Structure formats: C-alpha cells, structure tokens
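Recall the central idea of this unit: under ordinary conditions, the amino acid sequence of a chain determines the structure it adopts. In this exercise we apply that idea directly, starting from the sequence alone.
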Amino acid sequence: MSLKWTILSAALASALIISGCSKETASTNEEKPAAEEKAGKEEQVKSDTEEQGETEPEALVASYKEAVAELDKAKEDKEVDFAKVEEIYISDLQPLVKKRDEEFGEQVDQTLTAALAAGKNEEMNPVVVRQLFDKLMQKEFFQTVRHEFAEIDENWGNKEEVTEEYEEAMAFYSVLQGTVEKRDAAYESNMQDVISGGFSEIQSAIENDDKLAFSLGKQVVDKTLMKTFYYAVGAVPNGYATKASESAKTDETEAMIQQSEGWAFYQSVYPYLQKNAPEEADYILGQLDLQTEAKNIDAYKINRAFVRGFGKIALHEYEESKEAFGEEKGTVTAIEGALFINMIENDIKEILGEEETAKLNESAQAYLEAAKAGNKEEADKYMPLLEESLNNLIQKAQ
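Accordingly, the structure predicted from this sequence is:
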C-alpha cells in the first residue's frame, strides 16, 4: 500500500470517528433548558426549510445521477472529468451534505471532498472514488429521508406541510430504490415491497391524522433500509465483506474496490450500531477500514458481529418497550425489536434452526399485537421467550 493511499484512507476513516460522537452531542442537547432547546429546534426547522426551498429534491437527485454517470466512466477504463464532478458536488450536493453532517454529528463532507481530490490528483483508483462517492451520497439521502421523517413528526397536525415532507422523503428514497432492488434479487427477499408498504402506511396516517400509524410506518421504512445496507455489507454470501475476502485471493485491485464499497455502505448503519453495540460496530469498522488489507478481512466474523449487534439492539428495544408499555413509545419500540429480528432472520435460521426462528418470529408478532392493544398480561407471556431466544442467539453468534 502506497504512502499516499495510507494517508488518504486514514483521512477518510476519521469522519467515522466523529460520527461516533453524535451520541454525546445528543446527550449534551438534552441538558439544555427546555425553552432554549425548543427555540433551537424551531430555528433549525426554519433554517432547513429556507435552505431546502432553494434546491428541490428532484434537482438534487438529478445532480447526484449526473455526477455518478461521469464517475461511471472509470468502470469502462475511460478518463473521468473529476473537475466536473467536484463542481457538481460543491454547487449542488455539498450544502445538503453539510446540513446532514451538522444534524447527525458527522464529517461526510470531509470524506467526499478528500476522495474527489484524490481522484483528480490520481492518488486513488478512480473506480474506488466512484464507489465511495456513490455509496456515501446514498448514505446522505438515507439520512435526509430520516430528516424528513423528523420534520413530519415535528410538524404533525399541519397536513399541507407534512404531505410536502412526505413527498420529499419519497423523492430522496428514489436514489436508494435501486440498491434495495439489487439486494432483493441477490437474496430473494421482498424489501422493496415492505418499504413501499411502509410509505403507504405513512401516507394513510397523514390522511387520517393517525400519529401512531405514522410512527410505525416510519420504522418499517427506516429499519428495512438498514437491512438493505446490512445485506450489502455483511450478509452471507453476497455481502461485500465476503466478496472482498474472496477476491483478495486472486485479484487485489478488485478486492480493494469491493472493500471500499463495503466500507462506504457500512457508514449508513455504523452510527446506529456503534451507539447500541459499540464492540461489534467498531470490530466491523476496523475490518473494513481502507488501511486493512483485503486478504485480512474475516467475512464470517463480520457477519457474526452484525448478528450479535443487531440482537443486542433488539433486546434493548424490548427493554424500552417494557418500560414504556401502554404508551406510544412502547408500541414503536416493539415493532423496532421485531424489525431487527427480521433484519437477521436468515442468520438466525442458520444459528438457532428453523423451529427456534419460527418461535422467535411468532413471539415478536404476538408481543407487538399485545403492545398495540395495551394488553400487558398477554405481552408478559411473550417477553421472556423473546429475551431467552435473543440471548441464546447472541451467545451462539461468536
């Protein structure tokens, strides 16, 4: 590995170190006086609304596609006009990235800027630059979908406003749809249908002024997109961790490209995983770090780290559901627990077997229905089964 590559990969990785601080930022914000926090939120909403009014989502999506189309020349061994891509990024996309960086406590703009500069200065394989740009921009559109959902939540009751934010979320999701469909084809899954159903539930919730239905639909979309990114990175046998480790046996350049794809896709789930399962999250990050040689990637251990991490998150969601039972949060965290189980269902079947997986899914569904109905006696029947199975899964996923 060249010195330039080592220095650059370290710079790229630094953005993720910052992203891990987002949890601390949130804690600090919680300590602000209520009036000050409310004023800050109102000012942020106003600022975001004004800034987003300058560039419509469709225009941002078009700029992203134009930049990727230029970068695609690298895959055909053609010269890429990196100055053109930089110009598109700076003039059209960078403002959005900077807003998300500020909102989520990250430094993705620094990473994208460094990657494009490296491509222009011929310090990085242009195909690697292409993959980093594409996957990190997909992360930013994913974060922007989340931002729009937060805006809907903030402005609930203003039907015109939340309808517009829903439509913007749909426009930003259009960038991610191809990635979802590709994973569906690779794993014979139906994530695209699930996400479409989630958006439909959100739309109906807005029309019927049903806040809980919106909250549940939002979780379906959000966690199914996280599942998509997991499938792209750590699932077996088609995740980039597996692809890179296999390619490293015969083609170092191809392995490096696949490793960069895995690393970049992972950024969409790393902050969430790091907050709830830091040991597993940081192990995966270290394995996919661009300073790690692809031949040293252990795809099996990456997969098992994902399983343990998501299993721990599911347990955490159920713990929160118990504490908030009878409230909206109790139902929302119940569906989150079920969605994290679904995220790793194929892995659970391999580790615990078909019968145990079926029981776990049945318990998750039964608990969710009990939470929706506010039936604590019924819910208490299934919580011990959920906890036992998930703890067993985490123990065996070593």
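Confidence is low (pLDDT under 50) at residues 1-7, 13-53.
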